[in-house]
Q: What sequence folds into this?
């Protein structure tokens, strides 16, 4: 039996934003790792987030739900969430789900940071 790939979420501070860099898979088994990393940012008062998906290789509907809730929560608190660095397969999921139309998606980290 093969082990499910894990998820790690590293963060970088780039005033005024926190850049969140998930690596691996966001699915039903790992979404709690992302939720925990997000809760740490909320607890620290950070509501301007840039998600750099350069190292993300899969996202399920559970992960998409967390991203949508995160964007709404940040917007309600006067913050902003931007997504960038989407690999082709992640970009296709965003397109099919309609997330490209409702979330702020940029092609690169530099473009995302310029939009803050």
A:
């Amino acid at each position: 039996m093969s082990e499910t790939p894990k998820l790690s979420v590293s963060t970088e501070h780039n005033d005024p934003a926190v850049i969140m860099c998930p690596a691996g898979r966001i699915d039903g088994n790992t979404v709690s790792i992302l939720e925990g990393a997000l809760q740490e940012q909320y607890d620290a008062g950070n509501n301007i987030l840039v998600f750099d998906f350069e190292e993300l290789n899969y996202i399920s509907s559970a992960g998409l739900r967390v991203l949508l809730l995160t964007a709404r929560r940040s917007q309600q608190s006067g913050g902003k969430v931007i997504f960038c660095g989407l690999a082709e397969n992640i970009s296709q999921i965003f397109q099919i789900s309609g997330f490209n139309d409702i979330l702020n998606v940029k092609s690169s980290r530099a473009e995302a940071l310029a939009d803050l």
Residues 61-76 form the longest helix (16 residues).
